[in-house]
Amino acid sequence: MSGTRVFVVEDEALLVLALEDLLSDMGCDLVGHAQRLEDALSKASALDFDVAILDVNLGGVRSDPVGEALARRGIPFVFVSGYGEAALPAGFRDCPLVNKPYAAASLQTALLLALGRRDPDTAASPAGVP
Predict the structure, then answer these.
(1) Fewer beta carbons within 10 angstroms: which end of the chain, N or C?
(2) DSSP string, 4-62
(3) Sheet holding 77-81, edge to edge
(4) Which residue, among 108, 88, 87, 85, has the nearest Cα to 4 in the 3D structure?
(5) HSE of 111, CA atoms in CB hemisphere, 13 A
């Protein structure tokens, strides 16, 4: 994962800080983050990154439009949610999902799946990564 550039869309500041630490431990570079939909949409089209982490729910607003913008750019992404697989947008059911609260191993597995890489130590399915 070393050198992988990551964009994070998460409305909870403490979780952004936690993600930054987890990503740093994996060797990833956090290139930016957004806490609101409008900012996320702007940065999703302007920043240069390899993969994104999207919270499904941004303060009561769904992040689906960010996923659509990333899909148009061909940039892979991972959803995170405390609501399980049912929270995934219908058009993105094949995207990796990390359930909150999440662990570093779950996040790394989901990022590898999104990037089309396999984690040899884990045999997780794309959706509902433990």
Answers:
(1) C
(2) -EEEEE-S-HHHHHHHHHHHHHHT-EEEEEESSHHHHHHHHHHS--SEEEEESEETTEE
(3) 29-34, 5-9, 51-55, 77-81, 97-99
(4) 108
(5) 26
| The one-letter amino acid at 128 | G
pLDDT per position as a tens digit, 33-92? 999 999 999 999 999 999 999 999 999 999 999 999 999 999 999 999 988 787 787 888
Q: What is the pTM of this model?
A: 0.87
Residue 74 has which token pair? 């061909």
- The tokens 């992404």 sit on which residue? 77
